[in-house]
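User: Structure please.
Assistant: Input sequence and predicted structure:
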Amino acid sequence: MLDILHRIGVTSSPEAVYAALTTVDGLASWWTEDTGGDAGVGGVIRFRFEPGGFDMKVLDARPGEHVLWEVVDGPDEWIGTQVRFDLSQEDDYTIVLFRHSGWREPVAFMYHCSTKWAIFLMSLKNHLETGKGEPAPHDVRISNWH
């Protein structure tokens, strides 16, 4: 199994980062404006993009520390993978360790998604630090997959 890994530092509290990862409004402010569903543990969050979307079941969420989702609907390559955000405080930064784990093979779509995750994590950082993220459909387009 293969993983996509990223790390960002945000000049915001772990609680503010956690809220951006665990509320529909928070998620819509940095990942995709077309976000809905139940962001509580056991709930399913729907994320829609121009070419399609994903449904994530919330497996775990610990305030200010950790968020874990499992992909339950979307492209075949994503089904059964997990998306994890681990938060920690280092000086004036909240460190976000991101992991999209469980990819079966390094297909072209995985490379695309790795780049897009980096773009959206920077959108999360901008949302928290400036009040303005770049969620889809306002994100950077990198290919025909958007």
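The chain has one domain: 2-130.
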